[in-house]
Amino acid sequence: MDLKLLQPKVESLLEKRGFRLVSLRFLSEEGTRFLRVVVDKYQHIISLDEIVKISELIDPLIENEEDENFTLDVTTTGAEKEIPVNEVNDYLDLYIKITMNDGVKGPSTIKGTLNSVSEAALTLTHNVKGRIKTETYALKDIKVINRAVKY
């Protein structure tokens, strides 16, 4: 199967439903060959029902590939996916987690609602010892930004 031919078909199918293709590749695990399709949806945590539906939509695109034996594996980037710095502005008003660089004073991780983003910093509203605070953090001090799930 030629992934270069399959990829635009899968991308089109996903985009029509508000999803985006993150990656499409073959891999082997414990002797089983998989076609792994990783999907994402802007500002949305993808449900298991949505994964099943996506699998059902992709299956007809690959079912005629009898020359190869593989299992279709549709997965997501995860509920707590990493957010690239250049995309963090797309997550305003959502709950995120920032992990600070080593050596930065204060807590190593902070979870809160993203209020604003500038070229140099972001502002979060979060709980600090039972008090709600709004604080600004320099992007240069942040190692990783992730989407977070609020329990």
Q: Give the terminus-to-terminus CA distance.
A: 43 Å
- Total E-strand runs: 8
Query: Major sheet: size, sense and barrel closure?
Result: 5 strands, antiparallel
Number of helices: 2
Strand arrangement across the biggest beta sheet = 7-6-5-4-8
What is the name of the CATH class of the largest domain?
A: Alpha Beta
Do you know the CATH topology of the largest domain? GMP Synthetase, Chain A, domain 3
As a whole number of angstroms, the C-alpha radius of gyration is 19 Å
Structural account:
13% of the residues are buried. The radius of gyration is 19 Å and the shape is elongated. It folds into two domains: 74 residues, RimP-like superfamily, N-terminal (GMP Synthetase, Chain A, domain 3, 2-Layer Sandwich); 63 residues, Roll (SH3 type barrels). The model has no long low-confidence stretch (mean pLDDT 92). The protein has a five-stranded antiparallel β-sheet with strand order 7-6-5-4-8, with no helix packed on it. Strands 1-2-3 form a three-stranded mixed β-sheet. It has two helices and eight strands, in the order H-E-E-H-E-E-E-E-E-E. Strand 5 and strand 6 form a beta hairpin. The chain starts with a helix and ends with a strand. With 151 residues, it is α+β, with helices and mostly antiparallel strands.
